[in-house]
TrEMBL record, chain A:
InterPro entries associated with the record: Rhodanese-like_dom, Rhodanese-like_dom_sf
Organism: Yeosuana aromativorans
Molecular-function GO terms, alphabetical: thiosulfate-cyanide sulfurtransferase activity
Alphabetized UniProt keyword annotations: Membrane, Transmembrane, Transmembrane helix
Top-level taxonomic group: Bacteria
Protein name (database record): Rhodanese domain-containing protein
Cross-referenced SUPFAM superfamilies: Rhodanese/Cell cycle control phosphatase
Domain Rhodanese: 68-159
From TrEMBL, chain B:
The protein's name in its UniProt record: Rhodanese domain-containing protein
Lineage: superkingdom: Bacteria
Pfam families, sorted: Rhodanese
Organism: Yeosuana aromativorans
Residue stretches making up the Rhodanese domain: 59-140
Classification lineage: Bacteria, Pseudomonadati, Bacteroidota, Flavobacteriia, Flavobacteriales
Alphabetized InterPro entries for the sequence: GlpE_sulfurtransferase, Rhodanese-like_dom, Rhodanese-like_dom_sf
């Protein structure tokens, strides 16, 4: 009698096994908060974010632009009105609101260029940086001080007092020369104007999407 | 006899498999600090721009202040009734338990640092961890005769119209020559679309 019952149950054994596996597979789908855990861990993000390594100074950027360094792209995260009014040469406008749009992902998620975020200050640029860093994008930088510091250091550098070190004067003359490159005209520099009319050459940037390696076969 | 052997093997194998899965689930180490929102919804929250608190609104029972500067700076001077929780320590157990408690008590947590740029960072992290009661104080802290002074500042306010400044300088140079404004040259960017590759089989 018992044997018969066991035999009856056993005849369903494969179905029962299959059912167990399906239930287990369903459990995997419902793993807690799986979708929300995108990107790197919070601890990692914190240690990235407290390091000041991401900041680049306005002087460095001015130097790079003037020397036509091809290794970086500038991303303006302000709205399009401010961008159209004035922006750094060759910058791309990605308003903070649209940062994570699919269209712009190719600019942000690539290994070819350094990506430099800037806004009026570095407040919004930092926010953009944190979000992209969480997603694991590489080579991201932030322009320290943003456009405001760009104005006070490069566009309108303050002439140092007479009693400061010689380096200050050197820095000032470098900055002044840089500001002339970016279009500012000084009354005492009229003679050199012919040079300045040469517009910054167009930069052609080709962004290649990161290629995922094809799955390689077993044997 | 053969059939019985087969059944035995299958059941042993499946028991082992289920056991392995169960052990995996039980011992799965969950990260200590979990995000509760993804980057998309974080961005939505940030662009709503309602996370700023002004200095006039913080003298309130429902508000607790958190100083995110270092302990040294906190001891030098801090706002009244502020708790010190420096940015690198924001994910530690102590800080998290304090923050959780504050959240359960329905208190608004207002972060401040030397400037809003500084408190921006812990704010961003905590927002992504699911604290929706966090605000930023938009003040800059300075010292005047050893007294802590707070200045309210506007965030991301342009200090000058750079285009106007450049145009002005051209006018003042009084050359009579018209100069083209160096408009940012349009970049030509070629994005290569990812090609879908066919799945390659094993063997």
């Amino acid at each position: 009698m018992v044997k018969k019952k066991v035999a009856k149950v056993l005849s369903f054994r494969y179905k029962i096994l299959a059912l167990i596996f399906i239930v287990l597979a369903g459990g995997l789908v419902l793993l807690p908060k799986h979708q929300k855990q995108e990107g790197i861990k919070a601890e990692q993000l914190l240690s990235n974010v407290i390091s000041p390594e991401r900041y680049v100074s306005t002087d460095q950027i001015a130097h790079k632009i003037i020397n036509q360094d091809p290794s970086f792209i500038l991303i303006d995260v302000r709205d399009s009105i401010s961008y159209n009014n004035y922006s750094l040469p060759n910058a791309i406008n990605i308003p903070l609101k649209k940062l994570l749009d699919k269209d712009f992902e190719a600019y942000l998620n690539q290994n070819q260029f350094d990506v430099i975020f800037y806004s009026n200050d570095n407040f919004y640029a930092d926010q953009a940086w944190v979000l992209c860093n969480r997603l694991g994008y590489k080579n991201l930088r932030v322009l320290k001080g943003g456009m405001n510091r760009w104005f006070t250091t490069i566009i309108n550098p303050v002439k140092p007092n007479d009693d400061v070190a010689a380096e200050e004067f050197e820095l000032y003359s470098t900055r002044k020369a840089a500001s002339m490159f970016f279009g500012v005209v000084y009354p005492d520099q009229v003679a050199e104007q012919s040079d300045m009319q040469i517009a910054a050459p167009k930069k052609v940037i080709t962004v290649q999407k990161k290629k995922k390696r094809a799955a390689e076969g077993g044997c | 006899m053969k059939e019985l052997e087969k059944v035995k093997r299958i059941s042993i194998a499946s028991t082992l498999f289920i056991l392995a899965v169960l052990i995996g689930v039980v011992t799965y180490e969950r990260p200590k600090n979990m995000y509760t929102i993804n980057t998309k919804s974080t961005l939505e929250k940030l662009t709503k721009n309602d996370y700023l608190a002004s200095i006039d609104n913080i003298h309130n029972e429902n508000v607790s202040l958190i100083d995110v500067r270092s302990q040294y700076e906190y001891e030098k001077g801090h706002l009244e009734s502020a708790i010190n929780m420096s940015t690198p320590e924001i994910l530690s157990d102590d800080s998290q338990s304090i923050l959780k408690e504050l959240k359960e008590d329905n208190k608004t947590v207002v972060l401040y640092g030397n400037n809003p740029q500084e408190s921006n960072i812990p704010f961003l992290l905590l927002t992504q961890l699911g604290y929706d009661n966090i605000k930023l104080l938009n003040v800059e802290i300075s010292y005047f005769q050893n007294q802590l002074v707070t200045d309210q500042i506007a965030i991301e306010k342009p200090i000058a119209d750079i285009k106007a400044f450049i145009n002005e300088s051209i006018k003042n140079s009084d050359t009579g020559i018209e100069i083209d404004n160096n408009k940012p040259a349009k970049k030509i960017i070629i994005v290569q679309k990812k090609k879908k590759k066919g799945a390659e089989g094993g063997c």
